[in-house]
Write a structure and sequence with these properties.
Number of helices: 20
Number of domains: 2
Radius of gyration: 21 Å
Distance between the termini: 9 Å
Oligomer: single chain
Shape: globular
C-alpha cells in the first residue's frame, strides 16, 4: 500500500515531489517542490511571478484552509484607464480584447507577482523543509536542461481565434524571453529539444541563499522595479513590498452524503459547490453518463452558475459576494426546477473572443494523511522576462473588466476572479478525493465532472479524469470529439448549439488522487503530459 502520492501535469515535477516524500518530507513540502519544478519545466503555465490557490488538509494538526495568492492590480491602475480601448469580451467571459492587446502581452499586462511568497509562506506554516532545500530540483532542470514535451510544444503552436494573440507571441514577448525559448532565427525549438535557462537558475540560487523576501524587497526586487520603470510597467516597489498571501476559510456543501470543500472568492470553488447543489436534485446516474439528458442538465447548471458568477462573484475586499444565497439549498432547488421545466439559460456576452488556459495543478498526499490540492498559474503569460532574471511574468491584467462599475472592473489592489477550484471531498469527516485543474473558465466545469464521475458513477481517479468532458460557459455547449454525434444531434433538435473540438481530451486538465480503504489511486489528465506516482 502506498504511503503517499503526487499527481501533476509534468513528470519531472511529479518525480521531484515524490522524492521529497521518500526523503521524509510531508505533503506540503512535496507540493512546493513539485510547484517549483513546474515553474522551471512549464514556464508559460506557472511561475514564481504568478498566482494561485493552495488547499491544505492536515487532519492530525487540525488544519484545513486555503492559502490564497491571487494576483492584484497594481496601485497605478485607474478604473477607466482602458475603457476606450475595449473591442470584445471573450465568449466564455474569461477576459477582454483591447486595442493593441496591451492587457494581454507586454509590461502593462503584468499584475502583482504572488506565487513565490505563497510557496515560502506555506512551508513556514505547515512544511518541514526550507524553500532553499526544495528549490534545488528546479535549479537542476534550469541548469542541465529539460525536454520539450508534447503539451508544451502544442501550447507554443496554438493560434487563438477571436482576436487573441497567437501563443508564439508569448515567446517573442521580450528579447530576454525569445533568447531562452526560440532559436536564433526566431523559429520554435522542436519537441524533444532541450531548454536551458541559466539566468533563471541564477535567480533561483539567489532565492535559495537570500530567501523569498529578496524577490519582494531586496536585490531581485530592485531589478524588477527598474525594468518596470524603464518599459512602462505598472508594478512599483510598494506593490512588491506589500504582496502577501491570505488565509481563507474553505466553502462547504453536502452532496449525496459527502462533504465537499473548495476555494472561496475570488477563487472558483463557489461555482463547483453551487453546481453540485443544483445537480443533487437530479438522479444523474439513472440518466446515464454523457447521455443527452445528462449533458442538457449539467450544461444548464454550468450556464446558471456562470451567469451568477459574472453578476456577483469577485474580490470580496471590493465586492459584496452573496455567498450564503448562492450556496443555498433552497436557491439550488429553484434553479433545478427551472432546468426541469425546460428553461434554457442565456449567458450574456459583449462580443465573441476566446479563452486562455495557462495554468497548472498538483495534488499530494503523505503517509500522515496530510493533503494538498494546489492550482497555480501565470493567467495569460505576459511574455515579459527581465534581462538576467530568466522567469516570465504573469499577464493577469487581461481578465479585468475595462468597463468601470462592474464586478470585475479595475481598481488598485483588486484581485481578478479566477475559476481555480482546488477541492477536497470528505466522507465521514475523512478526505477521500483531492481534485483540481488548470484551464481558465473550464476549471470549475472540469472539476465538477471529475467529482460527479467519482461520486455518482463510481469511477476511480484515472477513469474520472479521462472520461469525455463538455463545457457550457456561454450559449454554446462545447464538446470533445469522443462524445457521440447522435447525442449531439438529439440536443440540437431541442435547440442547443454545439462546438465540437478535434481534441479527445479538453476542457481543463483535471488531476486527482482518490483515498480509499484499499489505498491511493491517482489520475493524470491524458490531455496533458503528466502522471501520478505512488511512494
Amino acid at each position: 500500500m502506498a504511503n503517499g502520492m503526487v499527481c501533476a501535469p509534468q513528470p519531472e515535477a511529479v518525480e521531484a515531489g515524490a522524492m521529497v516524500l521518500k526523503a521524509g518530507g510531508n505533503a506540503i513540502d512535496a507540493a512546493i517542490a513539485t510547484a517549483l519544478v513546474q515553474t522551471a519545466v512549464d514556464p508559460f503555465m506557472s511561475g514564481i511571478a504568478g498566482f494561485g490557490e493552495l488547499h491544505v488538509v492536515m487532519p492530525k494538526a487540525g488544519v484545513h484552509q486555503c492559502l490564497q495568492f491571487h494576483a492584484r492590480a497594481p496601485g497605478a491602475v485607474t478604473p477607466d484607464m482602458w475603457q476606450d480601448k475595449l473591442i470584445a469580451e471573450c465568449e466564455d467571459g474569461f477576459g477582454f480584447i483591447l486595442e493593441g492587446r496591451i492587457n494581454e502581452i507586454g509590461y502593462q499586462s503584468i499584475a502583482t507577482p504572488q506565487s513565490l511568497r505563497a510557496y515560502d509562506t506555506a512551508l513556514k506554516k505547515w512544511g518541514t523543509m526550507s524553500l532553499g532545500e526544495l528549490i534545488q530540483p528546479a535549479i537542476g532542470y534550469l541548469e542541465n536542461g529539460w525536454m520539450i514535451r508534447p503539451h508544451v510544444r502544442r501550447f507554443w503552436e496554438q493560434e487563438e481565434p477571436g482576436g487573441r494573440v497567437g501563443h508564439l507571441e508569448y515567446l517573442r514577448g521580450s528579447p530576454a524571453t525569445a533568447k531562452i525559448y526560440l532559436n536564433a532565427d526566431g523559429s520554435m525549438k522542436p519537441m524533444g529539444g532541450i531548454i536551458k535557462n541559466p539566468d533563471m537558475a541564477k535567480t533561483y540560487r539567489r532565492i535559495a541563499e537570500a530567501g523569498a523576501d529578496d524577490f519582494y524587497e531586496g536585490e531581485l526586487a530592485a531589478k524588477i522595479v527598474a525594468d518596470m520603470e524603464a518599459n512602462g510597467g505598472l508594478i512599483s516597489a510598494e506593490d512588491l513590498k506589500t504582496t502577501m498571501p491570505q488565509d481563507a476559510d474553505v466553502l462547504w456543501t453536502d452532496y449525496r452524503g459527502y462533504q465537499v470543500a473548495s476555494s472561496p472568492p475570488p477563487g472558483g470553488g463557489i461555482m463547483v459547490l453551487q453546481m453540485l447543489n443544483i445537480l443533487e436534485n437530479f438522479d444523474l446516474k439513472a440518466m446515464g453518463h454523457n447521455s443527452p439528458e445528462y449533458i442538457r442538465t449539467v450544461a444548464e447548471a454550468m450556464k446558471i452558475s456562470t451567469v451568477d458568477k459574472d453578476n456577483h462573484v469577485g474580490d470580496p475586499r471590493f465586492v459584496d459576494v452573496p455567498v450564503e444565497h448562492l450556496l443555498s439549498k433552497d436557491y439550488a432547488k429553484e434553479l433545478a426546477d427551472r432546468i426541469k421545466s425546460g428553461v434554457k439559460t442565456h449567458v450574456p456576452r459583449l462580443q465573441k473572443g476566446e479563452d486562455q488556459k495557462e495554468t497548472t495543478q498538483l495534488c499530494t498526499v503523505d503517509n500522515q494523511g496530510n493533503c494538498v490540492s494546489m492550482t497555480h498559474s501565470l493567467g495569460m503569460p505576459s511574455g515579459v522576462t527581465t534581462e538576467g532574471l530568466g522567469f516570465v511574468y504573469n499577464g493577469c491584467m487581461g481578465v479585468f473588466d475595462p468597463r468601470p462599475g462592474r464586478t470585475g472592473s479595475l481598481a488598485p489592489g483588486k484581485s481578478r476572479f479566477s475559476s481555480m477550484a482546488p477541492t477536497v471531498v470528505f466522507k465521514n469527516g475523512k478526505p477521500m478525493l483531492l481534485i483540481g485543474a488548470p484551464g481558465g473558465t473550464y476549471i470549475a466545469m472540469g472539476v465538477l465532472q471529475g467529482i460527479l464521475n467519482v461520486l455518482d458513477f463510481n469511477m476511480d481517479a484515472q477513469q474520472a479524469v479521462s472520461a469525455p468532458r463538455f463545457s457550457a460557459t456561454s450559449d454554446i455547449i462545447e464538446i470533445v470529439n469522443r462524445i457521440p454525434r447522435f447525442v449531439q444531434a438529439e440536443l440540437e433538435a431541442d435547440g442547443y448549439k454545439f462546438r465540437r473540438y478535434a481534441l479527445n481530451f479538453h476542457f481543463a486538465g483535471v488531476h486527482a488522487i482518490r483515498i480509499t480503504e484499499n489505498g491511493l489511486d491517482g489520475g493524470a489528465d491524458p490531455g496533458r503530459d503528466g502522471m501520478a506516482m505512488a511512494v
